Amino acid sequence: MNVRYDNDENEVHGGYGFFILEKMDSLPSDILDLIFTLQRTNDDKYLGDRDWQTNPSVLTPIETTPHLDKGISLRIGPDIVDQLEMNRTYILELQEPASGWKEDDVFKIETGIKYSQNPVLQKQSVIPEPPAPPKPPPQSSDPGSPTDTGDDQSAVTGNDTNTIGGNGDNTKVIGDNGGDIDTNDNHAAVIPSDNPDTKNGNGDNRPLDMPPVEPPPPVERPPLSDRNKTLLFVSLVLLLLLGIGAAIAFFMFSSDSGSGDPTEIICGREMQGSPVTMARDFLSGTVDASIGMCLAQELRSRENGLDAVFLLLEDAASKGNPQAMFELAVFYDPLNTAPTGTIQKDPLMAWQWYSRAAGAGEASAAEKLAALRTWAEEEAAKGSAAARDLLNRR
After folding, report:
1. Which residues, at least 6 apart from 281, have a Cβ–Cβ distance to it below 8 Å?
2. Which residues pair with 214 in a beta bridge?
3. Run of H or E including 21
4. Which residues pair with residue 52 across a beta bridge?
5. Would residue 247 count as lying in a domain?
6. Domain boundaries, position 305
7. Within this chain, do residues 385 and 292 fall inside the same structural domain, yes or no?
8. Fewest beta carbons less than 10 Å away: which of 45, 135, 146, 351?
9. Contact (CB, 8 A) for 182 and 176
10. Per-block average pLDDT, block size 10, for the chain (394 residues)?
């Protein structure tokens, strides 16, 4: 057979998917009674209830439906989907415990997996770009650029050029005609420069006879006295002790609150958590059917314990325990009026498990089969499709 993985697109929050099995060599007699194991090829570990382990562990799909021609679809939930990895190769072995039928295939997950919790995105560090080098000042294209006059005075007509004329100060020198210097005329008008950087020789706007301003001396703080040093040291020690005390209290509270429910001794084993958690922890390893039946009886009377009882009965029934087969059929029996947790009534499944229990020697199963047959005949006469299906397939 060929196996592939697809996400369940109807689940907007992720965590659900399908193992699609196609081109199977043969089909089991009852696709509703299928279990499977999942093994990683890189370390040969098997998927258990919540983690990968050395020993094989039986997994049960949420729903099993036919797929095209000679194919089966196994719907799985977050307990399996969240353990899968992209581009990882696995071995899936499908089994029907009652008949001993099994098939397996090696496959690789190439579809993006929608997990039940989105991974936290890591922010990438950004290295700032170095600042751009300063641009060189533009070259002046003013026709009034400096002109060599042939004597010791320079003529400047641009507004951004400073020069020292023959008079020895920072002035602008222009010709008599207001433009370029006439090289044949040594008489030039001298006017003060309008550039503030050239009003005097010290580079600022102070008058020439004003002395430069000295910066104020730095303020020196007085050193800490011995008393102040002692107070500072004591304060730091107190803050350190408070921090250590808060950390210890936090870890103690976390350890107490993280333990959850107290540990109990049930059927000779230490158990902890809700009934369903106890059942899953119990079934994560290799267990004996009789111990599973013992735990089922202990959890039956507890709040929200019926779903856990169903899991334990299903495991014990798959291992051939007649009483577990009978009690599992009662969960599905439409004539049963007792609470069954979240398990829905299914006449066909009830008939199959009653039949297996009778075949395994459970005396009460024959009576239940007769009552179920009478119910099916009456309901079929009323138009029940489930009852007609039972009569046609029993």
Report:
1. 49, 271, 272, 273
2. none
3. strand 17-22
4. 47
5. no
6. 264-393
7. yes
8. 135
9. yes
10. 91 91 86 90 89 91 86 91 92 89 90 75 39 63 47 42 43 44 44 49 57 73 76 92 91 57 72 80 73 84 85 89 93 92 92 94 93 92 89 79
